[in-house]
Write a structure and sequence with these properties.
With about 240 residues, this protein is mainly alpha-helical. Helix content is about 75%, strand content about 0%. Helix 1 packs across helix 9. The mean pLDDT is about 80.
C-alpha cells in the first residue's frame, strides 16, 4: 500500500506488529523471572537483554546456565540458534543496501523473527516502495520495546509470578504463529519438518543439544532443497 510519508510508514509498521506483541509478553516475563531466579542482579539481567536481543537464544543460554554448562557451550548454542538471522539478513540486504552503514547496523540489531515475517514478503513484492526502511523500522522498534518491557517486568516481579500461570506455553505458540505463514515453498516446508522431527527425537539429549541438532538439520535440509530447486530450474531453462 502507498504511504504518505516516512512517519506514516513507520506508524503503519508499528501497527502491523501490534497483534504479535502480546505473544512475546509471557516469553519476556519468563526470561526475566528466570534470570533473577539464577541469581542475576536486575542490572545484569536487563543488560543481558539489551545486549542479546534474541529471546530464544537468551532463554536457551539461561537454561544452560541453570545446569552449569561450560560458557563455550553456551556461546556455541546461542550462535547456532541465531544462525537464522544470517539468512534473514541475506534476504533483506538487497532492499536495504542503499542505506548508510549506521542505518544498516541499527537494522541488524533490531532484526527479529516478527519483523522479518512481516516485511520479507512485502519487500519481495515491492509493496513497501520508497518507505520500506521506515516500515521495517516501525515493526522493529515496536517489537524491541515489547520485548524489553516484558523482560523488565519479569525482572521486577522476580519469583513473584505464580507457577499456576503456566506462562511457558506462550513460547511455542508465538513461534508457531510465525512458522506457519513462513512455510511458502518446498525448502521452507522441508526445513520445518526435519527440524521439528529432530527436535522431538532428540529432546532427551543433555545440555539442550537437541535444539542445536534440530537447528542444524533444518538449516541443512532447507539449503539442500533450495539448491536442488535451483538446479532443476536451471536444467529446465537449458533444455531445448
Amino acid at each position: 500500500m502507498p504511504y504518505r510519508s516516512a512517519t506514516d510508514a513507520f506508524i503503519q509498521g508499528a501497527r502491523a506488529l501490534a497483534p504479535l506483541a502480546p505473544g512475546v509478553v509471557p516469553f519476556g516475563l519468563v526470561t526475566g523471572v528466570t534470570a533473577i531466579d539464577l541469581g542475576m542482579t536486575p542490572a545484569t539481567a536487563i543488560g543481558m537483554t539489551l545486549l542479546f536481543y534474541s529471546g530464544s537464544a537468551q532463554m536457551a543460554a539461561l537454561e544452560l546456565m541453570r545446569h552449569g554448562v561450560l560458557p563455550v557451550a553456551i556461546l556455541f548454542t546461542a550462535l547456532i540458534i541465531n544462525l537464522r538471522f544470517v539468512m534473514y539478513s541475506a534476504t533483506l540486504a538487497p532492499h536495504m543496501h542503499h542505506l548508510p552503514r549506521r542505518g544498516r547496523w541499527s537494522l541488524a540489531y533490531l532484526l527479529s523473527d516478527q519483523s522479518f515475517a512481516l516485511c520479507s514478503l512485502k519487500l519481495a513484492n515491492g509493496e513497501l516502495g520508497r518507505y520500506a526502511y521506515h516500515y521495517y523500522a516501525g515493526t522493529a522498534v515496536a517489537m524491541w520495546l515489547a520485548w524489553q518491557l516484558s523482560v523488565a517486568a519479569g525482572v521486577g516481579l522476580g519469583a513473584g509470578i505464580p507457577a499456576s500461570w503456566q506462562l511457558g506455553f506462550a513460547i511455542p505458540l508465538s513461534f508457531l504463529a510465525l512458522l506457519v505463514p513462513a512455510v511458502r515453498n518446498l525448502p521452507s516446508l522441508g526445513a520445518a519438518i526435519v527440524g521439528g522431527v529432530l527436535a522431538v527425537v532428540a529432546i532427551g539429549l543433555p545440555y539442550n543439544l537437541g535444539l542445536v541438532l534440530a537447528s542444524l538439520g533444518g538449516i541443512a535440509t532447507g539449503l539442500l532443497l533450495e539448491g536442488a530447486k535451483g538446479r532443476a530450474a536451471l536444467a529446465r531453462r537449458e533444455a531445448p
